Amino acid sequence: MPDLVAPGADNARWKELAQAIRRAEKGDATGFSDYVKAGTLGSLKPPSFVGMNMTHCLDGIRYRDYAEYHRLRALGDRIAPHLSGNELWHPLGCVGWPEPVRTPTAPLPVDQLPPFVGAGTWTDYGDAADLALRVPGSGTIRFEGHGHGLYHTGDPCTIAHANRYFIDLRVPPKNTVCRAES
What we know:
Blueprint: H1 2-5, H2 12-25, H3 31-39, H4 46-59, H5 66-79, E1 117-120, H6 125-132, E2 139-144, H7 156-168, E3 176-179
């Protein structure tokens, strides 16, 4: 989340987050979705956050309340103190989401899905490959570099593999590797 990397002058965004947390502790967690929305204004990524919320929130990937978030955060602090909370912020954008859960999560019907492509960088390849390789006939692209949202990075190798899949449904071989251009 860009606000946690670049909190703004005088840590303004962190202060906004602290206010959202204080409100949540008093029972009003809607400040989290406001915080995420405000942090993406003027960014090329607002549609991704809204789109992520549209799918996650409607699929039921959300917290019931701040107490549930707090309980999971405490569990993470105990189990993996150096990584705790790393991915817990995503469902916070669903607190106060105006639509009810419509498609509760269920096991992935891997035997009914067409092959697809999983792509990732140093930080997220493992997750992408774990999911992709559960579906028969799927392939993966590992980008040897950092980043996120590989299709939009401009890497010609990754884009070429993705385009072949989008246009001709040709899946790259498992463990395909793309390297950043020098």
